[in-house]
Structure formats: C-alpha cells, structure tokens
Design goal:
Elements (H helix, E strand, L loop, with lengths): L1 H14 L10 E11 L6 E2 L2 E5 L2 E13 L2 E8 L2 E7 L2 E9 L2 E7 L6 E18 L5 E3 L2 E13 L4 E10 L2 E6 L2 E7 L3 E10 L1
Antiparallel strand pairs: 1-4, 1-15, 2-3, 3-6, 4-5, 5-8, 6-7, 7-9, 8-9, 9-11, 10-13, 11-12, 12-15, 13-14
C-alpha cells in the first residue's frame, strides 16, 4: 500500500509542470483567507474575551530578489469580527492585516514547491462598535510566520495552500479608558491561484 502511494505521488509529481522561481520574476495570487483567532483572547472589562473568525478575499504580490527567494505583500478586503466578553457579544470590529514577508521556495524540480517565510504584520482596526459605549481597539505591529505549498498547474500558474501565524496584540479602550488588552494571535489559512509574470 505504501509503495503504491509513493508510486502515485511520483507519477503526479513527475508528470506535472514545475513552477520555477527565478530572480526578477513576480507572482500575483488571488484567493480566500480565513482568520481564526486563538480561543482565549485575553481579559477585557473583567471578562474573558473571544473573537470570532472571518473569511475574506485576499491578494498577494511577490517579487523574487534572488532565485527561490521572494519578498511578498499580503493584502485583503477588511475582515469583520464579533467580540464576545464573558460569553456575551460586546462589540464588532473590522481590520486590515497587510503583511510583508520574506519567503524561501524550496526548488524541488517537480509540481509541488513548499515554502517558508518570516515577516512583519501591521493590523489596522477600524469601525469599532459596542453597545456599551465608544469602543477603540489600537492598531498592532507584530511578527508573522508563513508556510505553504504551490502545486503547479502550468509553467505560469499554481494552486497555493498556505498557513500564517500572526502576532496581533492590542489595547482596548471604552469611552477613552483602557479596559483591557486583546491577544488575537490568529492562524490564517489561505487558498489561492498564483500567476507568474
């Protein structure tokens, strides 16, 4: 059974085109990302806080500064999250998570090209709303880790599946007074179609 699985994988890998990454090339990725905050997001106004997940369209642009080494920018339409404190809905916020990463793509010579990356994220919160008063969530800067794999569909196109961990920690203010700090720290799962230029 194991031998059969390895033979099938080899046939798929050898029979499909490779997506080579050379210095000076660029890729554009269009897809969908799901932001899944960790389960315990800190204490706000004395209550345990949780933040719901959300999926939105994403776009990535990557420029290869050397063979297999690219600088990538991730952008997306605004994500929207419900904020729950002590099990009750206490507010809503939107955010934009632009992330700049340095990615290394492992040259396999086959259809599957795994990659890893490390970068920095800037999360911009806006349209914060709460029935309890004037809600404000501060913007955040943090590190971001990235890993994924491209499956080449042609010499110019690939299907990408990736996962990011983003460090997002922000102070929360209600009516101008700090009432706590949220630790969003989400895993962001993505799937996209990547085009090479």
């Amino acid at each position: 059974m194991k031998t059969l699985a390895l033979a099938c994988l080899a046939a798929v890998t050898l029979g499909a085109p490779a997506l080579a990454q050379s210095a000076g090339e660029m890729t554009l990725g269009l897809g969908l990302g799901f932001v899944n905050p960790k389960s315990d997001n800190g204490i706000v106004a004395g209550g345990t806080t949780t933040i719901d997940g959300n999926a939105r369209p994403t776009v990535t642009f990557e420029y290869f500064i050397r063979d297999n080494l690219g600088i990538e920018l991730l952008a997306a339409l605004p994500f929207k999250h419900d904020i729950n404190v002590g099990g009750a809905k206490a507010g809503v916020t939107k955010h934009l998570p632009p992330t700049l990463s340095l990615n290394y793509h492992f040259p396999t010579g086959g259809a599957l090209t795994p990659f890893v990356g490390l970068g920095v994220n800037s999360t911009l919160f806006f349209q914060d709303r709460s029935p309890l008063g004037d809600l404000k969530i501060d913007n955040s800067w943090g590190l971001a880790a990235h890993l994924g794999v491209d499956y080449a569909l042609s010499e110019k196109g690939a299907l990408r599946m990736d996962l990011r961990y983003i460090d997002i920690d922000s102070d929360v203010k209600l009516n101008g007074a700090k009432v706590g700090r949220v630790e969003v720290d989400p895993l962001v799962a993505g799937v996209s179609y990547v085009m090479k230029f």
